[in-house]
Amino acid sequence: MSYVTCPSPGGASLGVDEPPRSERRRERVSPGTGRVLAVAALEASPHAVSRLRRLARAVARGRGLSAAAEEALAVIVSELATNVVLHSGSADLTMMLQSDDVTLIVSVRDRGQWRERPSPRCEAADMDAEFGRGLALVDAYSVDSTVQCSDEGTLVRAVIAL
């Protein structure tokens, strides 16, 4: 992820081995305030992931977005919702989709607590693994992404260029 803000004694960070997004050669798109396209609040369960993915695809088709934008949206929504279900401890999650002329903004919020890994991952980085790629996929499909943690939960935003 590009930016992580979590209240912890030593601070938390992701992507330590990567340069900050500002130093990478990627298109930079500033998200506008955008128009709200959809908001959904659901119980944080595996069933919620597929429901949110279907909603995201319906919104993309309704807005006439490209197949690439629809796929990026579906992957990002799936990964962020799955992270809430598996890792947050939150009873519920909220997804909001916003859009302006050049971006689509996906926001997923939970009321869980950021849990730092107790020890480094023992497995080697493996793109064939069944786990551990969610935030990397979000970062790959978006032009900007942020993670903000607070006592009230976590908010992750990803910006998709249209």
Textual characterization of the structure:
It is built from three helices and six strands, in the order ββααββαββ. With 162 residues, the protein is of the alpha+beta class. Strands 1-5-6-4-3-2 form a six-stranded mixed β-sheet, with helices on one face. 29% of the residues are buried.
Number of beta strands: 6
Cα-atom radius of gyration? 15 Å
Order of strands in the sheet with most strands:
1-5-6-4-3-2
Cα-to-Cα separation, first versus last residue: 20 Å
The whole-number mean of residue pLDDT values reads 81
Strand fraction equals 25-35%
- Broad shape: globular
Structure annotation, total helices = 3
Key attributes of the depicted protein:
162 residues; alpha+beta; six-stranded mixed beta sheet
Short description:
The chain is of the alpha+beta class.
Please specify the SSE layout and strand pairing.
Blueprint: E1 4-5, E2 35-43, H1 46-62, H2 67-88, E3 92-99, E4 103-110, H3 134-141, E5 144-150, E6 153-161
Helix pairs in contact: 1-2, 2-3
